[in-house]
Specification:
It is a single chain. With 227 residues, the protein is α/β, with parallel strands linked by helices. The protein has ten helices and seven strands. Helix 6 links the parallel strand 4 and strand 5.
Length: 227
């Protein structure tokens, strides 16, 4: 059983569930993946927790929800928030070992693709160097571009606009302008809010030029993995 810790934000994790099933349609409904979704929008803001140094508070919140998914029968767990991965080192190892890391998945996907990629993430992910702490990051680092501070502020505000549905309505165009500015062939969707735009972005650039860890995980499931 796959557990999903969502709600950060809720639309992104709901989209992950939708894509998970659309990418794993089988002739028999009974062979499709079994999941548990805990969508909890009351999670503290991850970037604010990092900036304020409230790591233990956030880790305790995360531990409680992960424990709940494990008790519910989840063998593997996806945390549908990249920034939340910063707190995983504070989680009990037995539960941490069940987490399918979005960061590790991103690095693996980058390793298998040529080209230069612009990484779009929250300010919290940038400040805590979530991706750079991955053991295999040095193997892909030279092909990743990071937004300048001003552009990073634009990306962060774009993400929160997606969450609240108050931002720019043409997200794809805004992202394309950023990609062009940095001379990149592709994008890394380093915040799960961008998963809501995975389909139009892949249609525009081609699937190989959009690295989306949630999409990669959903696409890698097979009926054989279902208990």
């Amino acid at each position: 059983m796959l557990g999903i810790l969502g709600g950060m934000g809720p639309l992104a994790s709901a989209e992950f569930v939708r894509n998970l099933y659309e990418l794993n349609v089988t002739a028999k409904e009974q062979l499709m993946p079994r999941i548990i979704l805990d969508s909890d929008p009351s999670f503290p803001d991850r970037t604010e927790a990092i900036v304020a140094g409230r790591h233990r508070e956030m880790a305790d919140f995360l531990q409680n929800r992960l424990d709940g998914l494990a008790v519910g029968g989840a063998h593997r767990i996806v945390i549908a928030c990249v920034t939340a991965h910063h707190f995983l080192d504070l989680i009990d190892p037995p539960i941490r070992s069940r987490v399918v890391s979005l960061v590790t998945t991103t690095v693996r996907e980058l390793s298998a693709r040529p080209g230069r990629f612009l990484l779009l993430a929250t300010e919290g992910t940038r400040r805590s160097r979530v991706f750079e702490h991955a053991s295999a990051w040095p193997s892909v680092a030279s092909r990743v571009a990071w937004p300048t501070p001003d552009d990073q502020d634009t990306v962060h505000k774009l993400i929160y606009g997606i969450k609240s549905r108050t931002g720019d309505s043409d997200i794809v165009t805004v992202v394309d302008e950023l990609r062009t500015r940095y001379g990149c062939t592709g994008l890394v969707l380093g915040c799960t809010e961008f998963h809501l735009y995975a389909r139009p972005l892949m249609a525009r650039y081609g699937a190989d030029n959009v690295v989306d860890p949630l999409w990669a995980i959903a696409d890698s499931l097979t009926p054989a993995q279902v208990p």
